[in-house]
Amino acid sequence: MSSPRKIRIGLAGLGNVGAGVVKNLQKNSALLTTRTGAEIGVGKVCVRDLAKSRDVEVPAAQLTTNLQDLLTDPATDIVVELIGGTTIAYDFVADALRAGKPVVTGNKALLAERGIELVALAEKENVPLYFEAAVAGGIPIIKAVKEALVGNEIDSIYGIINGTSNYILTRMNDADLSYDAALKEAMDLGYAEADPTLDINGWDAAHKAIILAWLSYGRWPKPEDIHVEGIENIAPEDIAFADRLGYAIKLVGVVKPGTDHRIECRVNPAFLPKSHILAHVNSVYNALAVRGDVVGETLYYGSGAGQDATSSSVIADIADAAANIAHDAGFEGFLPHGEHGVSVPLSETTSSYYVRLAVDDRPGVIAEITALLATNEIGILSIVQPEPDQPKKGTATLVLTLHDTNYGTIASALEKIEALPCTQKKPVLYRIESI
Ligand SMILES: NC(=O)c1ccc[n+]([C@@H]2O[C@H](COP(=O)([O-])OP(=O)(O)OC[C@H]3O[C@@H](n4cnc5c(N)ncnc54)[C@H](OP(=O)(O)O)[C@@H]3O)[C@@H](O)[C@H]2O)c1
Q1: Are 101 and 10 in contact (CB under 8 A)?
Q2: Which of 50, 72, 157, 394 sits most deeply, having the most CB atoms within 10 A of its CB?
């Protein structure tokens, strides 16, 4: 038997994920060599701070603070970008592609914002670009959409693709925690970053949804065109009402085809029916339901972040890159890829809805509300006046579920309801997703 080929990665970033890559490449080194026919080792490693203590040991001679050292080192076969961000990382990945080095990245923000340029560059330079870790950490969803479902039109993707927000919503539901208490717990346990903004405002999930939309429809939705709403304003009472009505509130990324090649790509908290398995995806876990026109519904579940799960995906990409080097394969395109897509405006997206109203507690109010909805041709599925935990004199709570209608219609009807003299507060609105 011939001895295995030697493949060296140049690793940019030795933080959470980078350290996991080094650790797990070492841990399963023999297995990887057997499976890939290549002995995959770590070459130059770039960090910001050479003095920082690390989870893994890398000989000092391999460490550098100059990203270019990874590209000029002739031993670097594959470049792995795990520094994050969209400026220095962009320049570095672009330089790596221009230098003819296959690139593996887990950087969802970079792809969502500048993927259109990087994929075009990868094609121009005929160099592959891999990004399995960029969406849903350890879940092999990129391979699933790009390869396993290649013979399908993608009818829809519904994904719980942010573990931090899912943890917070799970704890608000299961332990009756307030949003602030659940966020603090997530931070104390290390499930949320020191700055959790992108997790809770929906943008981390949006970056992933944009990548999935591109893979599904060959066009990149522009970040500024898509609707992104986070979990910051979810009230415990809506979590409780959702539960009573047979739903769970989850932050979902939704990707669907629109008419005229437009793309519906959005992130919002939504009521998911408990009859669907996604409603039972709890804690920091991620899951995606992908419906293809040939295969029907498929489901993917697992750890959407974390050192080991994410490094599993990075290592899978490194193994692919190593195999492609052996076959002298270049850019493996997923065409078309060079255009921005037109997004379906929020006002045209359709679903059913949950609405909670605080209104005057007097006869005739329900009739006023239902008449206004009828005038706007919005059908009511259910209406209840639940007994609140802390009743307020003179105020009645109304909880309605509404038939499918477009968002523009419901938003305008709610503006009119808010203007009624009987309405005491801004109405609360959530989508009910029928997956
Ligand atoms: N964490 C996850 O669970 C997860 C999951 C999926 C995808 N990702 C993606 O993976 C990437 C890395 O995430 P992470 O959590 O590992 O980040 P991290 O813990 O903050 O690590 C970043 C690493 O990059 C180094 N670095 C940053 N800027 C640099 C620069 N300009 N030059 C040289 N080195 C630089 C840092 O060096 P120092 O150590 O010296 O500061 C650090 O080692 C991000 O794109 C992230 O979105 C992460």
Answers
A1: yes
A2: 157
